Amino acid sequence: MPHKKAQSWFDQHPNRLDRKSQEEAIDLVSFSFNGNPVVGRKGESIAASLIAAGIRNFRQDRVGENRGIYCGMGTCFECLVHIDGSPSQRACLTPVEKDMDIRTQTYAPSVGPRNDQMRPNFHPTVSPPRRTALLIIGAGPGGLASAISAARSGVNVTVVDERTMPGGQYFKQPAAASESSDKSAFDQQSLQGRALIETARNLGVEILGKTTVWNAVENSDGFDLHVS
Ligand code: FES
């Protein structure tokens, strides 16, 4: 009987764009979906890992139909899943982590665990107030360009975004794992975004990722922010 050649990790994940060898598939992250093992790459979203593994049905709506990723940018809420028992988490915005227990969400899920029982990422701890002269919500092209203009005029700027990385949908940055393994992941558009992000940072713009603003109180010299 002919010996069957072992499949590489990328052979098992045909939806991946990069075709690097298994040896170069660094920073792999093992987690489970409905109890079945799945492997993603560090820095990418849960949705990206699931799609790459051929899993498209993330939740069920109230008539039992399957739903999955739609906008891919955190606005449609079609990609909701349970993560470690916490319901209604957006798979497209949540970075995949080792040993996560991801499960399909059905309509009207239970409330889930108490805050202090959640994985730290899902425990919204509001930090002490921080002050800024100009607060920009959203680190997409518009937010970054505005921040750069203001910073060049000497204004102290803070840009807040709920995504892990700045760039928004238009200048979306590849997963961190691609930095070291696959330079082709940086197409012209993401390179333009990277340049914009670097310009903002070099001008001293503070960019807060994975951050939600709960309260912004205006005062005489700017805003006091309460973020988590
Ligand atoms: S796919 Fe739209 S919020 Fe995740």
Word description of this protein:
- Helix 2 (141-152) packs parallel to helix 4.
- The protein has 4 helices and 13 strands.
- Strand 5 and strand 6 form a beta hairpin.
- It is of the alpha/beta class.
- Helices cover 18% and strands 25% of the residues.
- A 5-stranded mixed sheet has the order 2-1-7-5-6, covered by helices on one side. The chain has a 3-stranded antiparallel sheet with strand order 8-13-12, with no helix packed on it. Strands 9-10-11 form a 3-stranded parallel sheet, covered by helices on one side.
- It folds into 2 domains: 22-122, Ubiquitin-like (UB roll) (Roll); 130-227, FAD/NAD(P)-binding domain.
- The mean pLDDT is 82.
- This is FAD/NAD(P)-binding domain-containing protein.
- Pfam families: Fer2_4, Pyr_redox_2.
Quickly list its features:
binds FE2/S2 (inorganic) cluster, globular, alpha/beta, FAD/NAD(P)-binding domain, 13 strands, 2 domains, 18% helix, 228 residues
